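Hi all, long-time lurker, first post. I run a small reading group and we've been trying to get comfortable going from sequence to structure in the token notation. Rather than ask abstract questions, I figured I'd post a concrete chain and ask someone more experienced to write out its structure so we can walk through it together at our next meeting. Sequence below, copied exactly:
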Amino acid sequence: MLAHRLACTPPVNLLSRVQALMVDFFWDRMHWVPQSVLFLPKEEGGHGLVHLASRGAAFRLRFVQRFLTGPADLVWRPVARALLERCGGLGLAESLFLMDLKGLRLNNLSGFYGGLFKVWGLLKKERPECCGSLFWLLREPVVRGSRFVCRVGRSLLQRLCEERILMLGQVVEVCGPRLDNAAGLASRLSLRPAAAPGPRPARPSGSD
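-- Answer (accepted) --
Happy to help. Here is the structure in token form:
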């Protein structure tokens, strides 16, 4: 039952109350050592008491790990993907975990799925220099913390979100595999393509 509650999203005050009851029961209300010592493994001089908040974070990280790297036939992945695509109206799922979500509204997600990103934000993530997976390369976001150098203004970001062109794979679909169809992307975003600079006028002979 406790594991089920942690896999869901129990209220913070409920976790605090249960944690306090566990510590009081263990020490019979006589706190001889700091609580942090109680949570250490017995091999390290502690008592192996469960820290509920940390256990809940571990459940969420395990969920993210299975969602991103688990077997392809996970029964619940399509449901999780459909729920994550509601985040900020971006229509993204796996790519969200490659983006910088600061300032992005998560209020349209349930407490559990919103908690996934809070826990995910505690980790320091580094991309490998060489990406050997075409799957993840095509899902690389082109905005919000992308590995590509893309400076996007607010108006352009809004148009990209509206047209759901936020991943490299979506850009390739519009611009072609060589990314040379800038006019097609501009048309899709209802933008006016910049005119190519013309040749400079010849300077008159004898002028300084």
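A couple of things your group might point at:
Residues 128-193 form one domain.
The chain has two domains: 1-125, 128-193.
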